[in-house]
Amino acid sequence: MQLNCPMPKFDFDFITMGHGSGGLLTHKLLESGVFDLLSNEKLDEHHDGAILDLKGKTAFSTDSFVISPIFFPGGNIGELAVNGTVNDLAMCGALPQYISLSFILEEGLSMKEFWDVLVGIKAACEEAGIQVVTGDTKVVEKGKGDKIFINTTGIGTLHPRADISLKNVKPGDKILVSNQIARHGIAILSKRQGLEFETSIISDTTNLNRAVKKLLDHFGKNIHLLRDPTRGGLASTLNEIAGDTGYGVVLEDRAIPIDPQVRGACEILGLDPLYIANEGVFIAIVSSEKADAILNLLRTTEKCEHAAIIGTITEKNPGKVIMQNVMGGKRVVNMPIGEQLPRIC
Amino acid sequence: MQLNCPMPKFDFDFITMGHGSGGLLTHKLLESGVFDLLSNEKLDEHHDGAILDLKGKTAFSTDSFVISPIFFPGGNIGELAVNGTVNDLAMCGALPQYISLSFILEEGLSMKEFWDVLVGIKAACEEAGIQVVTGDTKVVEKGKGDKIFINTTGIGTLHPRADISLKNVKPGDKILVSNQIARHGIAILSKRQGLEFETSIISDTTNLNRAVKKLLDHFGKNIHLLRDPTRGGLASTLNEIAGDTGYGVVLEDRAIPIDPQVRGACEILGLDPLYIANEGVFIAIVSSEKADAILNLLRTTEKCEHAAIIGTITEKNPGKVIMQNVMGGKRVVNMPIGEQLPRIC
After folding, report:
1. Cα A265 to chain center, whole Å?
2. Does the beta-carbon distance from B102 to A149 stay under 8 Å?
3. What ipTM was predicted for this assembly?
4. Could you tell me if A301 lies within 8 Å of chain B, comparing CB atoms?
5. A56 close contact with B: CB closer than 8 A
6. Angle at the Cα of B253 (from B249 to B255), degrees rounded to 5?
7. For the segment A143-183, what is each residue's pLDDT rounded down to a tens digit?
8. Contacts of B55 in chain A (CB under 8 A)
9. Which domains does chain A have, with CATH numbers?
10. Nearest residue to B269 (alpha-carbon basis) of B326, B338, B199, B325
């Protein structure tokens, strides 16, 4: 979503230590445009905390975002911070409603960059249908941070038909992925100092709550588990599931959707796309009898056009993720140890 | 609270970039002791989000903590991060129940320091009676952070008798402060590089939820407003209240409780204690007819022994904070512009 939100006139061109004081400069910063941009009934109270009316089972999730660079092909840290927490809530089977927004700014950050991040936040909130209801702003000295770190923490009521739990996963269940993998990590890598390469690959950062709601509306308890394979990629998420359930995961190499340009970049760089981060893709583990119907629904859903059934939960190979190729060859997909690519979220 | 929690055997002596990967190193870090230390039914699920049963009006508040140094007289950044968010919830009239915990660690942080901060978190949670139910860990390169930044975001149901709102503040209301002021800021200052001075002043960091609950149990709607004067001190908080209500605030110089050692340090350093941060003090604006009874209750409450009535809400001097001395002299107490002392929370 592109919003037309011209930057208001701030008294400063750059963030200073005083903007984190809680005094006049903090107030002026917030009241010169930040509060207006994100305005809603609850935030407008300008309190240290928001008062929400909640009822029943509620998901609660937090994430800090330290991505570098803060502007990347397809988005910025602000959109990523909103989408990341919205998606964590969606993976619980919740309907995201409210988020908190907490900044750690580095002294010297330009107001223009800060504003562009804020506009990214607003756009992502509007797309996901959630509200920023409370926040915080801190400033650290130049050299003690890196432009901007953002924490978002979200709240959402569980979908009435959701029953998402590791306990529901059973052998025979099918594993779906909602879209082409590895776009976010490759988009960030393409802009990293010393690694720039020519590509039109953009991050897949987006909210997943609308697609998840649609799945739950239609298929309720047939959706056994949802996960978004961000840091560590598909390999990390599937290894976690195998480890936590004690079952095996068997993947079909050819079934995994991947953009040819992303595959090409991975080959050139010697990276395995299974380990590359995604920010707009989820895995659904679903009952086998409904798997095709769920796939068909997903494929008619925005940003899930490339959804695919990529594997099966098995009793064999407990705790392990096995990749099968079309020739019948098999390899173990291990949990990544460290990081191929630090600070991608 | 001093806990006896010996550090478990970690594979590393220092935090590495891989600990923020979301892969094997992240898992090992969390599962080598972090999860065990903070264990509770909800956190033990090890999901990206926690599922909570909530009902009715709920307060939601966030704060990031970037204090330097991370260990200071009277506490560490972990305790501060828990108490800070617990107190923001308490100031809404809520009963804090759950918090999220999100770390931004700098590569090279020693495991010993990380563990000591975690133990501080556990101790503060036990004292306040709340649970860490979800979290996140990120790592940034050496020189892109400062040892450890922590975000905590909290949730708590409103006290059934609470009706805390700026709208309830009216002329004649009395202003109480719950304890001696300015201890936190002076304790931090005493340890700052180049400023060390000999003192036994320790931070006042503590939870305020138990004292607030006691006030609300007994005096309900007579408690019109609660605020904790952290960054910017008493001056900033009272100016906000004057500005937001449109009423005046008149303070009695001699009534403001302050430890003689803190007062002495402020005099030597040329600092006004009204502008110094507190982390275990709150202001209550209460109906005048109950003010003495509320004061008496507070004075029998732990960590509120020095509570005092320090001023009155007036129709005169709208939007301003006026300090009266015993000789009848008056001065305006302005909102601080920048920061006397950066990164005190």
Report:
1. 22
2. no
3. 0.95
4. no
5. yes
6. 95
7. 999 999 999 999 999 999 999 999 999 999 999 999 999 99
8. 54-56
9. 17-158 (3.30.1330.10), 166-332 (3.90.650.10)
10. B199
